[in-house]
Write a structure and sequence with these properties.
Pfam family, one: Rce1-like
Largest sheet: 2 strands, antiparallel
Shape: globular
InterPro entries: Rce1/LyrA-like_dom
Helix content: 55-70%
Number of strands: 2
Keywords: Membrane, Signal, Transmembrane, Transmembrane helix
Protein name: Lysostaphin resistance A-like protein
Structural class: mainly alpha
Number of helices: 9
Length: 280
């Protein structure tokens, strides 16, 4: 029941925020402001409120004590990973810089990324992964939340069964593993924002099949879909799949080393280790 209640509350707030951000139609101050308001003032507060009401505990996975460093840490990892993907694609002439883009477009894309990434992390890692893990263990939670995350992208423009599976494996597994290793949502939130912003806001490629204004760079992509991801964008490429799998493996190794892989229903309160650091 708590899973359903939490999903309903967060999803309802997310839908309202998404409608507002979409209505802004890439107006820079409106998209940035509404994106930030949706992410910070609405979604995070709604998540914290419903978790307290249904679980009667502090929301340690969103502890403000380490929010800044953890967000920055995740952002750097996510942006760096996507940059590595693009460099590899460009090495085989799949990605070409066509010229300078737009700073205002990059700012608008950042606002959009804030709302979208916080929404997805709260739903798929904060609610689904965390609650399923508490009942069925880390591996079941990782597989289920990853598959649902990939499935949620199947209706995107240019999406295919392959692209949905790629998102499930490269992003769903990586972000779930990041939460398992750190027990804070700030790291996967930052990682997700960094990846998406680098994808659209810096390198000017489509994000999960969706376009938008030019980022800091204007680009063209050409070549086989296995290299470039086709119309879905680089997230459908084998390079993105490899980067996500490698990062997921590192986070899972860290989770195992720290004793945070739960084989069965946890006997301790959910999220009790949420404030732990990545360097513990």
């Amino acid at each position: 029941m708590r899973l359903i209640l939490q999903l309903v509350v967060v999803a309802a707030v997310a839908l309202a925020g998404s409608a507002a951000v979409t209505a802004a139609d890439w107006n820079v101050p409106l998209t940035l402001g509404l994106g930030a308001a949706t992410a910070v003032l609405l979604l995070l507060l709604a998540y914290a409120w419903i978790v307290r009401r249904t679980e009667h505990r502090p929301v340690d996975e969103l502890s403000l004590r380490a929010a800044g460093p953890r967000l920055a840490q995740g952002f750097v990892i996510g942006a760096g990973l996507f940059a590595a993907v693009i460099v590899n694609i460009a090495f085989l002439d799949g990605y070409t810089v066509a010229g300078r883009g737009s700073v205002s477009g990059a700012v608008a894309l950042f606002g959009f990324a804030l709302a979208a990434c916080v929404t997805e992390e709260l739903l798929f890692r904060g609610i689904i992964f965390r609650i399923v893990e508490d009942r069925a263990g880390t591996w079941v939670a990782l597989v289920l939340s990853s598959l649902l995350f990939g499935l949620s992208h199947i209706a995107n423009p240019h999406a295919t069964v392959w692209s949905a599976l790629a998102v499930a494996v490269e992003a769903g597994a990586m972000l779930g593993a990041a939460y398992a290793a750190t027990r804070t949502l700030w790291v996967p939130i930052g990682l997700h924002i960094g990846w998406n912003f680098a994808e659209g806001g810096i390198f000017g490629t489509d994000v999960s099949g969706t376009g938008g204004p030019d980022g800091l760079l204007r680009s063209t992509m050409s070549g086989p879909a296995a290299l470039t991801g086709g119309g879905f964008g680089p997230e459908g490429s084998l390079y993105a799949l490899a980067a996500g799998l490698l990062t997921a493996a590192v986070f899972l190794w860290l989770a195992h080393r720290r004793g945070r892989i739960t084989p069965r229903r946890s006997r301790r309160p959910a999220g009790s280790e949420a404030g732990a650091t990545l360097t513990r």
